[in-house]
Amino acid sequence: MNPQVDKSVMTTTIALISGLVLLAAVLFMVAALLGVVGSVAPDDGSRKQAAVLERIKPVARVSFEQPKPAVAVKLSGQEVYNKVCAACHVAGTLGAPKTGAKDQWEPRFAQGLDTLVTHAVNGIRAMPAKGGDPSLTEANIRDSIVYMLGETGIKVETASAPAEAAPAPAEAAPATPQ
Ligand code: HEC
Questions:
Q1: Of 24, 64, 102, 126, which is the most exposed, with the fewest CB atoms less than 10 Å away?
Q2: Whose alpha carbon is nearest atom 27 of ligand 1?
Q3: Could you tell me the CA-to-CA distances from 73 to 60, 79, 127, 167 in Å, in that order?
Q4: End-to-end CA distance of the chain
Q5: Which of 89, 117, 149 to mutate to test the pocket of ligand 1 (most atoms within 8 A of CB)?
């Protein structure tokens, strides 16, 4: 055997094996890369699925949440008075009968509570309808008039107004910190 030839065969073989190993490594990397790409693909599918679910979701849902009651309904007569009526009725602005001025309120109260409520709800002369706050209910107006009369020293028999479909008298409202 010629050792020279042996060596060259050896070198060629090593080179060939190295090449194959390298090729295998490259193929492995490509496969791994494809694997990564492949693992992304199902995600894309789930996104499409989410889109489909979004498209076919029910139009309406049954909700057992309580409908929010109008804020004004919960206000007590005093709260409504402080929020709206006091602006004019404390100082007698525009000629409003002053809270606490019995002589100004007595002739008006002589008309009867229902008339006062009607006037306050619809407005009378310089007195704007509902004191200028249309969100107030008739019950709010009645409660605040009763409160205003009470502050003036005129006792109102609230029970004498049974025609009122008021959802709740002011006293029934849970005490709100003032
Ligand atoms: C912008 C000012 C103003 C506000 C706010 C206001 N009032 Fe008056 N109010 C008046 C004036 C002015 C009069 C007198 C009207 C008249 O008789 O010429 C009056 C009169 C009244 C009367 C007597 C009506 C009558 O028949 O004699 C009542 C009751 C009354 N207001 C209730 C209320 C209540 C309740 C509120 C709050 C919800 C309120 N007012 C808010 C200005 C106001």
A1: 64
A2: 108
A3: 29, 11, 22, 8
A4: 113
A5: 89
pLDDT tens per residue across all 178 residues of the chain: 577 778 888 899 999 999 999 999 999 998 888 877 666 555 667 778 888 888 888 888 777 777 665 554 479 999 999 999 999 999 999 999 999 999 999 999 999 999 999 999 999 999 999 999 999 999 999 999 999 999 999 998 875 444 444 455 555 555 555 5
Length in residues, the chain? 178
Cα-based distances in Å from 95 to 88, 92, 104: 8, 5, 10
Closest CA to 140 of 86, 68, 77: 77
Closest to 82 measured CA to CA, from 147, 130, 152, 139 = 147
**Long-range own/partner contacts, residues 64-73 (CB < 8 A, 24 or more apart):** 70/135, 70/137, 71/135, 72/133, 72/135, 72/136, 72/137, 72/140, 73/137, 73/139, 73/140, 73/167, 73/168
